[in-house]
Design brief:
Shape of chain B: globular
Helix content of chain B: 40-55%
CATH topology of chain B: Beta-Lactamase
Number of strands of chain B: 7
GO biological process, one term (chain A): vesicle-mediated transport
Structural class of chain A: alpha+beta
Largest sheet of chain A: 4 strands, antiparallel
Order of helices and strands of chain B: EEHEEEHHHEEH
Number of helices of chain B: 5
Radius of gyration of chain A: 37 Å
Shape of chain A: elongated
Keywords (chain A): Cytoplasmic vesicle, Golgi apparatus, Membrane, Protein transport, Transport
Helix content of chain A: 55-70%
Radius of gyration of chain B: 15 Å
Strand order of the largest sheet of chain A: 3-4-5-8
Largest sheet of chain B: 5 strands, antiparallel
Number of domains of chain B: 1
Largest interface: A-B, 67 and 51 residues
Family (chain A): Belongs to the adaptor complexes large subunit family.
Protein name (chain A): AP-1 complex subunit gamma
Strand order of the largest sheet of chain B: 2-1-5-4-3
Number of strands of chain A: 8
Distance between the termini of chain A: 77 Å
CATH architecture of chain B: 2-Layer Sandwich
CATH class of chain B: Alpha Beta
Oligomer: heterodimer
Membrane topology (chain A): Peripheral membrane protein
Strand content of chain A: 5-15%
């Protein structure tokens, strides 16, 4: 059989293939040749064949039949064989393969080989892909080698130990003795790997962490020497001595100083020194500075040092290198809560980053900008952010719009400014605004009483320009429905009032109803707005006509509304003015924390108190005279969890607000007796809050029909799916004999739906 | 979710050309063959659409890729989100400079015809998902010694 072709030959041949099919054919031919060569157990060419196989594997072709051959190569005495064998093992023999463990013995022998390069190969393979079993078997060998004075091997074995610890954390103790004098090494490479090992051990075990805290002074000294020492050519990078080692030491210091005041203090000076003395002209220096900043922010550093760190980040923001701007923004975002004032000083630079070309920088700059908005800078910041909103990519618009609304709500300097800002967002990014903003905006507008005329005018004008952005259209229609009378009477104070007739307004609203651009939700808004205008405008007949047309609309929602409005005209005309009158000021939803009622559909069992979820432990009620009565709240028992259904109308965002008539046709939830024993009766009644139907109001009626007072009555509601409070204290009082106590419990419908 | 909390720093190192051919794939974590293939394709897709106005860092699944383009080759290191981006950028550059020195003005073909030697260079500079040796002179010395054993 002719000698198998050389590796170079094969590579050259394969590269001449012009199509994928041609390549595949060549590969198959060669694989077949290799397979027969393997079958012949040819020692001479095994290495060459496996090398070729590995090349083909790198191109993406299967090479499993070569696995055992790799093992044979590892077992060979020739270095070249071993080398390819181990490479093959690393590429083909990960721990999922059955033959993986067969390597263990070979590796064990090679760890004790006389040639350091063979030992190195074994260590490398073990350290890169040794399985847990293999690590367990060979940990002893690794530990032995840790004591070697051969620096080439020390570096490899130290990292190999790191791998063993990662795979089999229980063995960490075993390596403790070997760490005794790790840091007294002079050799940089060994020192480097030793620091990595220490870092790994400290990160994994709090005991190790406390044990190694005593090394802080030594680490500080080493770092100091690195900075002060002169030119050391071997580890120099752009004039800085061994930046990689510096970075690793800084990281270890971070872990050691993290929750420890003494250690943090001990490293204070050196951190300041590194921060001020490091060259910043190249990326290398900045890498060290960055690690220093991360360390300063994480340990218990004094405030002066923290300010220094933030100033470094601020300088980073001005750097030409976008990588550096990026890491600065990332870190500033993490610290903006804790060091708010210091970060504020760099606000203008951060805002400039909104104009950066890189998407990830823009995003961070945006998040950071929102975090920095406060009462003092709101006007300036909002100008920048609105400009950003105009020009940014669509992926940002939704988040930016939400951020603007939130910030405006918190810090608006005046109502007029607030409305203007909202208008700006709706008109420039109207289609990206989140659905839940619409009801919030409506509420805001309602509550700004003196701005009603101005608002409806501006919204009307916006509608004339553009009816494609649904949130804008929805808010506008609602406002026109509500304040249309102000619009036609030209009462606006803030700006020049426009001249518009009732018919023009109705034209616009009807236009929305027929336009293809309007979604069903929007049409609902428009129809209801038209209806509301029947008590504000005089052209009632026109409105009646529109309403009756839609009584036969295909859209069921629209049809239902139209039919009900029709009924309002015909049979309940006496109620119409009252129903459609101006909305009162809405209370901001007074939810008691982000609680939710468990909702199941269709079950309104009045007396059954099942728990669907494992009940949380209740706080023991205070000492009570009638103790047995309150046992169910007293800590042993099940806490009653209320199962309710709230009327499940298709929740059109904000549509519910307008659906005052909805309540007329719905039956609502019947009152329910939750508990009735031994004279204590607890009843729940449910209704929608008026004016804000997004809130369900649950009234708890607790009555005491006994001859004795019930003192220290504690009522808590347990809700299963919640962030902060799992038990809500709702009612704590004294229920006098023969009396009744009521308490309200508000719940936001929106969260339930 | 699998990748979190394993304590490894470097998950993998990749060298790919613009067309997507892998010139080196060093894995420090267990992946199936098809997972590896998928990762290679994803990294390639993510990295080749970026140009000079982007940073050298990409958020990728639960971690991040630090990469740099040298001529037609992309050198990518996949690290944890908490790792120092700038330091690993230096690490890549260090590695490339060694390759350059070892192969005397390295080009892609050198990496193709001597692929097993490239792995040797990687193994001299990285181990167990960590940077091992950073001194270029030392690494080159070792490489020459190893070469003499062949």
């Amino acid at each position: 059989m002719p000698a198998p072709i050389r590796l170079r030959e094969l590579i050259r041949t394969i590269r001449t293939a012009r199509t994928q099919a041609e390549e595949r054919e060549m590969i198959q031919k060669e694989c077949a040749a290799i397979r027969s060569s393997f079958r012949e157990e040819d020692n001479t060419y095994r290495c060459r064949n496996v090398a070729k196989l590995l090349y083909m594997h790198m191109l993406g072709y299967p090479a499993h039949f070569g696995q055992l051959e790799c093992l044979k190569l590892i077992a060979s005495q020739k270095f070249t064989d071993k080398r390819i064998g181990y490479l093959g093992a690393m590429l083909l023999l990960d721990e999922r393969q059955d033959v993986h463990l067969l390597m263990t013995n070979c590796i064990k022998n090679d760890l004790n080989h006389s040639t350091q390069y063979v030992q190195g190969l074994a260590l490398c393979t073990l350290g890169c892909m040794g399985s847990s079993e293999m690590c367990r078997d060979l940990a002893g060998e690794v530990e032995k080698l840790l004591k070697t004075s051969n620096s080439y091997l020390r570096k490899k074995v130290t990292l190999c130990a790191v791998h063993v610890i990662r795979k089999v954390p229980e063995l960490m103790e075993m390596f403790l003795p070997a760490t005794k004098n790790l840091l007294s090494e002079k050799n940089h490479g060994v020192l480097h790997t030793s620091v990595v090992l220490l870092t790994e051990m400290c990160e994994r075990s709090p005991d190790m962490l406390s044990h190694f805290r005593k090394l802080v002074p030594q680490l500080v000294r080493i770092l100091k020497n690195l900075i002060m020492s002169g030119y050391s050519p071997e580890h120099d990078v752009s004039g800085i001595s061994d930046p990689f080692l510096q970075v690793r030491i800084l990281r270890l210091l971070r872990i050691l100083g993290r929750s420890d005041d003494d250690s943090s203090e001990a490293m204070n000076d050196i951190l300041a020194q590194v921060a001020t003395n490091t060259e910043t002209s190249k990326n290398v220096g900045n890498a060290i500075l960055y690690e220093t900043v991360l360390t300063i922010m994480d340990i218990k550093s004094e405030s002066g040092l923290r300010v220094l760190a933030i100033n470094i980040l601020g300088r980073f923001l001005l750097n030409n290198d976008k990588n550096i701007r990026y890491v600065a923004l990332t870190s500033l975002l993490k610290t903006v809560q804790t060091d708010h004032n210091a970060v504020q000083r760099h606000r203008s630079t951060i805002v400039d980053c909104l104009k950066d070309l890189d998407v990830s920088i823009k995003r961070r700059a945006m998040e950071l900008s929102f975090a920095l908005v406060n009462g003092n800078n709101i006007r300036g910041m909002m100008k920048e952010l609105l400009y950003f909103l105009d020009s940014c990519d669509p992926e940002f618009k939704a988040d930016c719009a939400s951020g603007v609304f939130l910030a405006a709500e918190k810090y608006a300097p005046s109502k007029r400014w607030h409305i203007d800002t909202i208008m700006r967002v709706l008109t420039t990014a109207g289609s990206y605004v989140r659905d839940d903003s619409v009801p919030n905006l409506i509420q805001l507008i309602t509550n700004s009483v003196e701005m009603h005329a101005y608002t409806v005018q501006r919204l009307y004008k916006a509608l004339l320009d553009d009816i494609s952005q649904q949130p804008l259209v929805q808010v506008s229609s609602w406002c026109i429905g509500e304040y249309g009378d102000l619009l036609v009477s030209g009462q606006c104070e803030e700006e020049e009032p426009i001249q518009v007739t009732e018919d023009e307004v109705l034209d616009v609203l009807e236009g929305l109803l027929v336009s293809n651009l309007s979604t069903p939700v929007t049409r609902g808004y428009a129809l209801t707005a038209i209806m509301k205008l029947s008590t504000r405008f005089s052209s009632v007949n026109r409105i009646k006509k529109v309403v009756s047309i839609y009584g036969s609309s295909i859209d069921v929602e629209l049809q239902q509304r139209a039919v009900e409005y029709n009924a309002l005209f015909k049979k309940y005309d006496h109620m119409r003015p009252a129903l459609l009158e101006r909305m009162p000021i809405m209370e901001k939803t007074a939810t008691n924390g982000p609680t939710e009622i468990v909702q199941t559909n269709g079950e309104t069992e009045p007396s059954v108190l099942d728990t669907k979820h494992p009940p949380p432990v209740t706080q023991p009620a205070n000492q009570v005279r009638a103790n047995d009565l309150l046992d169910l709240l007293g800590g042993n028992d099940v806490v009653p969890v209320i199962q309710t259904t709230l009327p499940t109308k298709p929740a059109s965002a904000g549509g519910e607000l307008l659906d005052l008539l909805g309540d007329l046709s719905l039956t609502g939830i019947p009152p329910m007796t939750a508990y009735n024993k031994n004279g204590l009766k607890i009843e729940f009644t449910f209704e929608r809050a008026n004016p804000n139907p997004n809130i369900a109001v649950i009234t708890i009626h607790a009555s005491n029909s006994t001859e004795a007072d019930m003192t220290d009555f504690v009522f808590q509601a347990a809700v299963p799916k919640v962030s902060r409070h799992s038990l809500e204290l709702i009612l704590k009082c004294l229920i006098m004999k023969h009396s009744r106590v009521n308490s309200l419990f508000n719940q936001n419908c929106a969260t339930v739906f | 979710q699998r990748f979190k909390g394993l304590g490894i720093t470097i998950r993998f190192i990749l060298i790919q050309n613009r067309a997507g051919k892998t010139r080196l794939a060093k894995w420090y974590m267990q992946f199936d063959d098809d997972e590896k293939q998928k990762l290679i394709e994803e990294v390639h897709a993510v990295v080749t659409v970026r140009d000079a106005k982007h940073t050298n860092f990409v958020e990728f699944r639960n971690f991040k890729i630090i990469y740099r383009r040298y001529a037609g080759l992309y050198f990518c290191i996949c690290v944890d989100v908490t790792d120092n981006n700038l330091a690993y950028l230096e690490g890549i550059h260090n590695f490339v400079e060694v390759l350059n020195e070892y192969f005397h003005n390295v080009c892609e073909l050198d990496l193709v015809f001597n692929f097993y030697k490239v792995y040797t260079v990687v193994d001299e500079m990285f181990l167990a998902g960590e940077i091992r040796e950073t001194s270029q002179t030392k690494v080159l010395k070792q490489l020459l010694m190893l070469q003499s054993l062949e």
